[in-house]
C-alpha cells in the first residue's frame, strides 16, 4: 500500500470516529503540514468547518463556540508557532472547564531537532493545561492501526467532555506528500452509529445518610446564605431558588450564574450583593451562620472580603464532579455532587411551618434599597458605564446571550444587571480572567446561531481586532457594545491610580484609536450614540441588522470612577440608616 493511501485511510478513520463520538464543529487555521487533517475534515459530510486564519483568534473562536454549545469543538493547525498561538485560549479553557480538542500537525520524527523549518518541541506543549496529551503514531492503514486511530479519536472526544471538561491535545506527525486521495473506496471505513468508546456519564448524588447528615447540620444553623457563582447548567436556577424559598435563605447570584434571568422564582434573589457588601460595616452586620456555594468563586471582590472577614463560619462548596476552587483560603467542606440534584434533594428536606424569615427579609430590604440607588440617575440622558448596561438589559432580545469582557465590563454587569424574566445566557472568559481573544470568543458563540451581544472595553476590542475577520467571512450576526474610556478603566479603582507620574503610561494606556475605521474594514455597521435614548435606539437597530454591528460608547475614566464611588457612598449611607 502506498504512502498516500495509508495517510488517507488513517486520517479518514480518525475523522469519522470524531463525528461518531459527537463532534460537529472544527475550527481550522490554514497551513501546510496540517493538510491531511484540514482537507479530510472539510471533505467529511457531517462536520461544520470554520476557517480562521489567525491562530490565537481561531482558538478563542472555538472556545466561545464550545462554551455556548457546551460540547467539544476541534482545533486544527500546522506545526511550529501556530500551535503556540493556541496557548492563551487553551489556558482559559482549562480553568473555565471548556472542552476543546486540539489537533496539531507536526514534522515527522526525523525532522525534529535538526534545524528543519517550522519545527518546535510540540510534545506536551500545553503542559498541565491539557487534560490528556497523546503523540499520534505515524499513519498506517492495516486494521490494527485504523482501530488505533478510532480508539484515540473517541477517547480524546470523551475525555474533553467528561467530568470537568477541558482541552485535550493530540499531536500528529505527518510525512510528505500530504494531500489525501478522496477517490478511495470505503474512504470512511466501516461506518455505523456506535462510537468506539460509548460512555454513559452518570451524575454524582449524596446517598440518604449523607443527605440527612448535611440537612441536620444546616438546620442547626439559623442564618444561612446560598451563593451562586459562574456556572452553565440551565436547570440549576429553578432548583436553587426552590431550595432557597423553602429554606428561607437569600441567594447571592453572580451575573454568570444563569440565575438572574429566566422564568424561575426570584423572590429570594439578591442581585445587588456586590454593592451591599462594599461597606465594611454592613459586612459585619450581615454575618451568616453558614455559606453554601455553587459554581466558581463570584466576580465580586466585595464578596471575597466578606468571606475572608467571616472565616470562622462553616463554608460548603459544591462541585459537580471534582475540583478545588476556593481562593479565600478559608477552611471549607467540599460536597462532590451534581448541584441541581443536590438542590432538589435539600428542597425535599423542607419541614412545613418553617417561618424563620427575618434573615431573608433583611437581605431583601437591603437589596431593594440598593437597587433603588443603582437605578436612579441624576442626568437621565447621560451615558455612564452603568447606564450602558442598564440600557442594554432593557432592550436585549429574549432568547439571546451576553458575552461579557473582563475588567470593568463584567463588574458593571455584576452591578447593573438586575433580575429579568427574559431568557438570557451570560458567558465570559473567567477562567484566567484575561482580556485577550474576547472578540473571537463572542463571535464563536454567535456561530451557534442564537443572537449574541458582546460587551467589552476598548482595550479588549483592540487586543483582538483580527477576530473581526470571522464576522465578515461568515456573515455572523453579533452586536458588539464597546465601552470606550480610552484605556484601562479598572486601574482607576486600584492603588496604582495614586502613582500619577507613571499611571497613564503603565496603567491608563490610552489608545486614541478611531474604531470606526476598523469596523468599516471588516464590513460592519458602526454607531456612536451620545445620549441614552440614542444608545437604546442603536441597540434595537443592531438586533435587526444582519451581520456585524458595533456600537461604541465613549466615557471618561475619572468621571466613571467618581460616579461609581458616589453610588457606593450613597448606598452605604442609606443601608446604615435603614432608609429606602
TrEMBL record:
Pathway per its UniProt entry is:
Quinol/quinone metabolism; menaquinone biosynthesis; Quinol/quinone metabolism; 1,4-dihydroxy-2-naphthoate biosynthesis; 1,4-dihydroxy-2-naphthoate from chorismate: step 2/7
Ranges where the Thiamine pyrophosphate enzyme TPP-binding domain occurs? 437-553
Where in this chain does the record put each Menaquinone biosynthesis protein MenD middle domain?
221-404
Catalyses which reaction? isochorismate + 2-oxoglutarate + H(+) = 5-enolpyruvoyl-6-hydroxy-2-succinyl-cyclohex-3-ene-1-carboxylate + CO2
Q: What is its EC number?
A: 2.2.1.9
Which GO terms of type biological process are on file?
menaquinone biosynthetic process
Q: Which cofactor does it need?
A: Mg(2+); Mn(2+); thiamine diphosphate
Alphabetized InterPro entries for the sequence: DHS-like_NAD/FAD-binding_dom, MenaQ_synth_MenD, MenD_middle, THDP-binding, Thiamin_PyroP_enz_TPP-bd_dom, TPP_enzyme_TPP-bd
Enzymatic class:
transferase
Q: Which UniProt keywords apply?
A: Magnesium, Manganese, Menaquinone biosynthesis, Metal-binding, Thiamine pyrophosphate, Transferase
The terms under GO molecular function for this entry are:
2-succinyl-5-enolpyruvyl-6-hydroxy-3-cyclohexene-1-carboxylic-acid synthase activity; magnesium ion binding; manganese ion binding; thiamine pyrophosphate binding
SUPFAM superfamilies named among the record's database cross-references: DHS-like NAD/FAD-binding domain, Thiamin diphosphate-binding fold (THDP-binding)
Q: Which domain of life is it from?
A: Bacteria
Domain Thiamine pyrophosphate enzyme N-terminal TPP-binding spans what residues? 13-121
Q: How is the cofactor bound?
A: Binds 1 thiamine pyrophosphate per subunit.
Q: Which family does it belong to?
A: Belongs to the TPP enzyme family. MenD subfamily.
Subunit-structure text: Homodimer.
Protein task: Catalyzes the thiamine diphosphate-dependent decarboxylation of 2-oxoglutarate and the subsequent addition of the resulting succinic semialdehyde-thiamine pyrophosphate anion to isochorismate to yield 2-succinyl-5-enolpyruvyl-6-hydroxy-3-cyclohexene-1-carboxylate (SEPHCHC).
Q: What is this protein's record name?
A: 2-succinyl-5-enolpyruvyl-6-hydroxy-3-cyclohexene-1-carboxylate synthase
Query: What organism does this protein naturally occur in?
Result: Lentibacillus halodurans
Q: What is the lineage of its organism?
A: Bacteria, Bacillati, Bacillota, Bacilli, Bacillales
